[in-house]
Specification:
The chain is mainly α. It has three domains: 99 residues, no CATH class; 95 residues, no CATH class; 86 residues, no CATH class. 43% of the residues lie in helices and 8% in strands. The protein contains ten helices and six strands. A hairpin with a 7-residue loop joins strand 3 and strand 4. It is elongated. It comes from Spodoptera frugiperda (Fall armyworm).
Length: 341
């Protein structure tokens, strides 16, 4: 720099200053003063000089060197030094961190949320524009937002707009001539709007459906305490759709050691009487069901009473054995009648 340089207000000028002498220390602090034509100081600022390094002293930030902070983060100067450097509050809009918005956590979250929404809307606009050309792209995924099939007031195609709307067996509007599902189910304007908000609405719908599903499951568990048991056997008893008589027969085949381990005394006595009566000639002309007999009215009445608890396996086994004995008795009586004839 050969001599004085005139710098207009609010203008930036780059000046290169060469120091002919060698600095005795590695780091030095010096003051740079800006004077007017009357040799009066207008602005004063302290700068840092470091050997073999580059230091930056800009705007409201304090001087920072590359070796100290490679990211060159801004550390604001005190207000007194800012005033001495001729920096006013109006110039703070040119701050490196406040060029767009302030570095506030709430504001950052809002900016990120707004950016995501805008990006999704841009994707929706692309889908809507492509849907105007390709109908398959325009209608893809809209069943998540609109319930199909749906009734329409009229056809949206100009060639068949005045004709009566026809539907197939599933309720979808079809072409009146070809009977094919090639007609539009939404107007172009409605389809365009739905496609624009598609990528914003569909995630919200999926999240709402998931929450509703979780709530319904919790309600079902609270209303069915019998089925909230962790035991697998209790769950099978409550919801088993298999034939209980067949299950009783299967359990009876698997058991070893005869019937005495699980038959009640009444069932044992009844079995003895059945075998005795089966071996003796029957004098009556017709067969009466064993369970209709007066001796077993009480037991039959007890079985007809509703039971709110789960099915008792032992009672099922007893009913199964009694039924088989009844069938055996009937078959024996039929054989005896044939032998008499």
């Amino acid at each position: 720099m050969a001599g004085p340089v005139l710098i207009p207000p609010r203008h930036t000028r780059t000046l290169r200053l060469e120091l002919p002498m060698e600095i005795p220390v590695d780091v030095a602090q010096c003051s740079v003063s800006l004077v007017n034509d009357e040799e009066k100081s207008v602005a004063v600022r302290e700068v840092s000089v470091k050997k073999g390094d580059r230091c930056f002293c800009v705007w409201h930030c304090d001087c920072v060197c590359l070796t100290d902070d490679p990211r060159l983060l801004c550390r604001e100067m005190p207000e007194a030094r800012q005033s001495a450097a001729g920096l006013s509050n109006r110039d703070r809009t040119r701050h490196a961190r406040s060029a767009c918005y302030k570095d506030v956590v709430t504001l950052n979250i809002f900016i990120i949320f707004t950016g995501v929404i805008v990006a999704l809307l841009l994707l929706g606009c692309i889908k809507a524009i492509l849907g105007l050309v390709f109908s398959c792209i325009g209608m893809w995924g809209l069943d998540q937002m609109v319930q199909f099939p749906r009734k329409i007031d009229h056809y949206y195609e100009e060639s068949i707009r005045c004709r009566q709307v026809e539907y197939d067996c599933q309720g979808y509007p079809v072409h009146p001539d070809t009977k094919m599902k090639t007609v539009r189910m939404l107007s172009r304007s409605m389809e365009f709007i739905l496609n624009v908000i598609f990528f914003v609405s569909v995630p919200c719908i999926i999240i709402c459906d998931a929450i509703k599903e979780m709530i319904s499951r919790c309600r079902n568990q609270s209303q069915n305490p019998c089925c909230t048991s962790t035991s697998k056997n209790d769950t099978k008893k409550c919801f088993s759709s298999q034939d209980m008589q067949g299950m009783a027969a299967l359990r009876w085949r698997r058991r070893r050691g005869g019937l005495r381990r699980w038959m009640t005394p009444e069932a044992q006595e009844l079995s003895k009487e059945l075998w005795k009566e089966g071996l003796t000639p029957i004098k009556c002309e017709f067969m009466r069901p064993l369970l209709r007999d007066g001796r077993h009215i009480d037991s039959a009445t007890q079985r007809e009473q509703p039971d709110d608890s789960c099915v008792d396996s032992e009672q099922d086994d007893t009913d199964y054995v009694l039924t088989q004995m009844q069938k055996s008795r009937e078959s024996l009586s039929i054989l005896k009648q044939k032998s008499k004839q």
